Amino acid sequence: MMSGYPAEGEIIQIHSYKHNGLIHRVWEESIVLKGTSTCIIGANDKTMVTEADGRTWVTREPAICFFHAKHWFNIIGMIREEGIYYYCNLSSPFVWDEEALKYIDYDLDIKVFPDMTYILLDEDEYERHRKEMNYPDVIDRILKNNVKKLISWIHERKGPFAPDFIDTWYEKFRSYRK
């Protein structure tokens, strides 16, 4: 049955691409905690990740992943001893095509620390890829606006940055792992 999103409890892959259509990274297994046509929340822990060059590694800690069909970013909350670290990828909105949840990674990242301070990463890589892969000006504008939107979400503790968001979804994830 074709639906616009995966079912709660389903185990899916996450595929990240680059603007030129080449695969960037694959997360082998994430469990869907919420699946709607506009928002998918997933979780994984110690999942195999395969890089474009074939190298693999395994994630170290439980993570709650937030994907949205209308925002040009996705947010991963990593649960560590010292608190929740967030890794935010500036990306295309997700698509779900029965094979995997897919998005285009646009290089820019925001790392958020447990005290909610943050840093913008990979601006050089973004500029290099913007030229190499000819990102259209409209995409450049959308991404820069979404950096601002993400920063305001961090300041306002909105969405995945809300105080109970990660804890609530982590509890749900743990109920699936029993």
TrEMBL record:
Q: Could you name the active-site residues?
A: 25 (proton donor)
InterPro entries, from UniProt?
Answer: DUF402 (IPR007295), FomD-like_sf (IPR035930), Ntdp-like (IPR050212), SA1684 (IPR016882)
Top-level taxon of origin: Bacteria
What family does this belong to? Answer: Belongs to the Ntdp family.
Into which EC class is this enzyme placed?
Answer: hydrolase
**PANTHER family to which the protein is assigned, alphabetical:** PTHR39159, UPF0374 PROTEIN YGAC (PTHR39159:SF1)
Record function comment: Has nucleoside phosphatase activity towards nucleoside triphosphates and nucleoside diphosphates.
Question: Where, by residue number, does the polypeptide cross the bilayer?
Answer: none
- List the GO molecular function terms: magnesium ion binding; nucleoside diphosphate phosphatase activity; ribonucleoside triphosphate phosphatase activity
Read off the NCBIfam families from this record.
PRK13662.1
Lineage of this protein's species?
A: Bacteria, Bacillati, Bacillota, Bacilli, Bacillales
Please list the cofactors this protein needs.
Answer: Mg(2+)
Listed binding positions for Mg(2+) 1 are 89, 105, 109
Protein name as annotated: Nucleoside triphosphate/diphosphate phosphatase
- Specify which residues bind Mg(2+) 2 according to the UniProt entry for this protein: 107, 109, 122, 125
Q: What is its EC number?
A: 3.6.1.15, 3.6.1.6
Domain named DUF402: residues:
21-158
**Catalysis performed (reactions):** a ribonucleoside 5'-diphosphate + H2O = a ribonucleoside 5'-phosphate + phosphate + H(+); a ribonucleoside 5'-triphosphate + H2O = a ribonucleoside 5'-diphosphate + phosphate + H(+)
- Keyword annotations from UniProtKB, A to Z: Hydrolase, Magnesium, Metal-binding
